[in-house]
Amino acid sequence: MQYRMLGKTGLTVSEVSFGGIPIIRLSVGEAVSVLHRAFDRGINFYDTANAYRDSEHKMGRAFRDRRDRVILATKTGRRDGAGALEHLENSLRMLETDYIDLYQLHQVAQEKDWEAAAAPGGALEVVRKAQAEGKVRHIGVTSHSLPMAIKLVRTGLFATVQFPFNFIEDAAKDELFPTALERGMGILAMKPFAGGVLDNASLVFKFLRQYPDAIPIPGFDSPQAVDEIVGLYAGPNSVGADDLALMDRYRAELGQRFCRRCEYCLPCPNGVAITGAMGYRVTVARLSPKGAVGFSGRFMDTVANCTQCGLCATRCPYELDIPAILKQHYDLYETHRALD
Ligand code: SF4
Ligand code: SF4
To answer: For the whole model, what pTM was predicted?
Structure first.
């Protein structure tokens, strides 16, 4: 395993690191086994979130006897100070630690999110106070909106930025990454498998290894998956004409149905949680039907209010047929709900 500096944080992180969503579907014992295999294979950076159900608890259990040898990152989606503080205190308890290496504002995609988080008494103020008290070492931000991510990077307030990056979502390489690097920020590449829609690990990491400044944080659900992906980092990388052609075929096939979670389609006049509901199939693939009903029910229930007006589709830069996809996902959700 090779290691890289994460911007100017002073943290040295493994060139492939660990995303904390898939361990949600494992038992505590299974999750600890996966986390220990990752640790044994040299992965030292672990990213989770308050929103990832019991993921923090599982990481806390796995690393309580080796806290000084891992770098822990987590996040809050709350924009108000009181809510962010509640999340932060809960993360410290769940992770069984008295400090968090990287605390991130989670999915700041809309202007109103940023205004609320940056307002006096908002989430950012609380997290900066926690940093002054030593509970948080560095502050980062995550987003799925490219213009917002670039804007957040330009504020100079964050040590890292986390953004989706994979061979069907590669826009970040053009402006976001260079802008972040100019400012000495660390870059975390979330969703290397595009949230579960890419199934060719070799191709996925051939692409990502061309951008070594962006640290990928794939999720792992078994010790074998850890071995497979760490193994893909052995030896030099080479991307041939066949690989590029195959990436193009994936792009062509997935382009018309893959939601990038950019949130340009919002808001829905009828309160439909479009982005959460558009990701339902991916959530099923990651968590199982039962898990997806529990995780996405709050989004999927809002789809019942969809009148198929089509307004959202006129705003989607990827020209997705959002009403049709929402209907398909809702039908699937109803089938899964009936399984309970
Ligand atoms: S449906 Fe389109 S506009 Fe809405 S989040 Fe997905 S990709 Fe973005
Ligand atoms: S089609 Fe449905 S989800 Fe889209 S804006 Fe209209 S009501 Fe909302």
So the answer is: 0.84
